[in-house]
Amino acid sequence: MLFHFKDKFPQLAPYWDKYLEFQKRIEVPAKTVLLEEGKISGQYIFVEKGCIRAALNNNGVDKTIQFFFEKEGLTSLQSFLKNTPSLFTIETIEPSIIYLLPKVYVNKLMAELSGEPGFLNIILAVFAERQLHYMHEFVSFIRDTPEQRYQNLLNERPHIIQRVPQHYIASYLGVTTVHLSRIKSKIAKGQSHF
C-alpha cells in the first residue's frame, strides 16, 4: 500500500522491486471503472499516468469525493481491509496508465515490511499524512463556502482545476456546473481589479 511513498523511503526499494513482477500494468481509456461502488476491493491501484476520481451515488446524483494523479496510490481502504462492499466507485477521468497489485501480494509485502527497522514509523507517517488531508477536506466542506473551497483548489491544488472537467469539480465542491461558472466569473472579476 506504500508504493506511492517509495521515493520518500529509499531504504525500502528492494521490496518495491521484488513485487514489481506481481503488478499488472495496464493502459485504460477515460471513464474506465476500476472499482464499482458496492463491490469488494481486491486490488491496490498505483497511478503512473493519468487522473482518477473516487465518487459515490447519492440518490441518483453522482458525487465526486477525491481526485488522484501521477505517483499516487489508492483503493477503497475499508473494503480492501475488511472485505466489505466499497462505499464508492473508482473511475479514470483521463486515459491512464495504472499498476494493479492484488491483495494477496499487498498482504505479503506488508508482512515482509513489518520486519524492517523503522517500518512502524513509516506507516504512521503515511497514515497521518492521509488523515490530515482528509480532515482538512472534511472541515473545509463544513466551514467554507463553495467559493472559498474553489479558491482553496486554485491556491493549493491548481492541477485539479487545469486537468479535471468542470462537472467533476462542481460535483466535488457540492454545487451545480452553473453555480461553479458563477464562482469562476466572480473570482475572475475580483482578480482583474488588481
TrEMBL record:
Domain Cyclic nucleotide-binding, first and last residues per copy: 26-111
Transmembrane regions listed in the UniProt entry: none
Top-level taxonomic group: Bacteria
Pfam families tied to this protein: cNMP_binding (PF00027)
Listed InterPro entries: cNMP-bd_dom, cNMP-bd_dom_sf, RmlC-like_jellyroll
Stated name of the protein: Cyclic nucleotide-binding domain-containing protein
Lineage: Bacteria, Pseudomonadati, Bacteroidota, Sphingobacteriia, Sphingobacteriales
